[in-house]
User: Which sequence fits this backbone?
């Protein structure tokens, strides 16, 4: 969960480019309060990179107040074929 201010216009571009570059799978959803929820799957080092990006940078013009990652687990195969933004 990431809380803070997120601009919807920049989220699509950022959350398409970064996961594709890192080859992580999963999804995100941004609620009306600007909180980002989701799941990330992939190779551990790539997921770690995505988490660092989410904690420190995020989408352009976002102001991240808190980044909480929970329910970590090791999986054999990804449940998702790509990374998507859910509305």
Assistant:
């Amino acid at each position: 969960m990431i809380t803070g201010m997120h601009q919807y216009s920049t989220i699509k571009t950022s959350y398409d480019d970064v996961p594709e570059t890192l080859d992580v799978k999963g999804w995100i959803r941004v609620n009306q309060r600007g909180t980002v929820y989701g799941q990330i799957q992939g190779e551990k080092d790539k997921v770690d990179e995505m988490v660092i990006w989410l904690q420190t940078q995020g989408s352009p013009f976002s102001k991240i107040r808190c980044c909480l990652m929970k329910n970590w687990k090791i999986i054999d195969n990804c449940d998702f074929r790509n990374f998507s933004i859910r509305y």
Notes: The chain has one domain: 2-86. The first helix runs from residue 8 to 22. The chain has a mean pLDDT of 81. The radius of gyration is 12 Å.
